[in-house]
Amino acid sequence: FVFSGRFKVNEMATNEASCEQPQKRGTKDKPNGYFADSVVSERRQKDREERLALVLWRRPIITLHYFLLETFITLKEWTLKLWRRRGTVFLFLVLCSLFSLAYSTEGAHQKYVQYLEKRFLWCAYWVGLGILSSVGLGTGLHTFLLYLGPHIASVTLAAYECGSTDFPEPPYPDQIICPEAGRMEGSISLWSIISKVRLEACMWGAGTAIGELPPYFMARAARLSGADPDDEDYEEFEEMLGQAETAQDFVTRAKLGVQNMVQKVGFFGILACASIPNPLFDLAGITCGHFLVPFWTFFGATLIGKAIIKMHIQKLFVIITFSKHIVEQMVSLIGGALPGPSIQKHFSEYLEAQRSKLHHHTGEDTPASENWLSWVFEKVVLVMVCYFIFSIINSMAQSYAKRRQRSQQQRHSEEKTK
Q: How would you label 165-190 residue by residue, b for 16+ Cβ within 10 Å and e otherwise?
């Protein structure tokens, strides 16, 4: 009995030693794990800095070369996707052929075909500008400031000058000319101007909602597949989630506030973020994709917020700003400033030239006067469009550089395993 007791005591001691041994080994391996994580993070940071240095004004030849290669790869991927959905593509081509046949055949239906063509091209133009404005996670072309805002402003000025919004078509919307009917003072209301620009404004807002879909689909695919995210913004989002408790700066806390609002409130949280001018809304798409929010919940709230609520807020701001009385007060305030009289003169000449163009009719000579304000605005638009094109080239070149880095890392890991 004593011998068996000693045997059990020795056995228990041996088991305790064996249980402690892996714990000690784990404590020894812990610094190695931290070291490996730091090496991986340093390598990722170095790769990211190399990609960000790949821009046209630093390395133009390599950037253009990578841009062309990435374009070829993207076209190849899109071609394969279309081939997998060849039934839908065939149906679309059949519909296009039927519309082309109806378009080229003479008959009483031509007036309806022309009306549909004009409306479709008009809506597609503004939807495309809306997509360009929001696509690219904040690097898009600011088409509201360049196109939609000036369009609403010109319609507002013309409505107050003409006393009507019944601009003859054509040339409206390409060119605004006052109707030949007599002017009626006091017949212009805020609601009539809103109704005049409602279609293009809502189409632009719908385009901005469509432009928010790529971050959503990217984050959703990365979460479902469990693979490493193929987007730097998504990587930053995951890093931000890991540093949620230690965040100190205002920007990170604002991003976390948007993320918490979208995650906890759901549909109405997305609607609230989409209904106001919000530079952090790109994060809402990534958050909804990461937490697997249903597609129609995200897109429905985004569409309602951007195309209806936010668009009416922006329209009201532009219409009130460029109403007749506000513009006259702005001109008088410009004259009261220090360099005001010279600027006031050019601004008044520009407004007078725009008014004379509104009363130009067929057969009359168009007033040929170009003001420096319109010249400056055209050059600003040109510079911003060029910058947008350069940013697209840089982004695609950096995407190809990331492909190369990933393939090199995979090759290196395969060589290690061998």
A: bebeeeebbeebbbeeeeeeeeebee
How many degrees, rounded to 5, is the angle at CA 82 between CA 81 and CA 85?
Answer: 95
189-235 pLDDT tens trace: 888 899 999 999 999 999 999 988 888 888 788 777 765 555 555 56
Polymer length of the chain: 418
Under a CB-based contact definition with an 8 Å cutoff, are residues 134 and 208 in contact?
yes
**In the structure encoding, which two tokens stand for residue 335, read together?**
């004259």
**Nearest-5° Cα angle at 324, 322 to 325:** 105
Looking at residue 393, its amino acid is I
Calculate the CA 41 to chain-centre distance: 29
Say how far apart CA 204 and CA 184 lie, in whole Å: 31
Cα–chain center distance at 232:
16
- Output the DSSP codes for 174-213: TS----SSPP-TT---HHHHHHHTHHHHHHHHHHHHHHTH
Q: What values do phi and psi take at 207, rounded to 5?
A: -65, -40
Buried/exposed code over 42-68 (b: 16+ C-beta within 10 A; e: otherwise): eeeeebeeebeebbbeeeeeebeebbe
Cβ burial 87-112 (10 Å sphere, 16+ → b, else e): eeeeeeeeeeeeeeeeeeeeeeeeee
What's the Cα-to-Cα distance from 98 to each of 84, 105, 107, 117, 186, rounded to whole Å? 24, 11, 15, 14, 48
How far is the C-alpha of 214 from the C-alpha of 263, rounded, in Å?
A: 19
pLDDT digits (tens, 9 = 90+) for 345-393: 666 666 666 666 666 554 454 444 455 666 777 788 788 888 888 888 8
Angstrom distance (rounded) from CA 145 to CA 166: 25
Residue type, 62: I
Helix, coil or strand: residue 309 = helix
Q: Are 229 and 222 in contact (CB under 8 A)?
A: yes
What are the residues whose beta carbons fall under 8 Å from the beta carbon of 108, sequence distance 6 or more? none
Q: What is the pTM of this model?
A: 0.71
Dihedral pair phi/psi, residue 171, rounded to 5°:
-95, -5
Structure-block tokens of residue 351: 């407004």
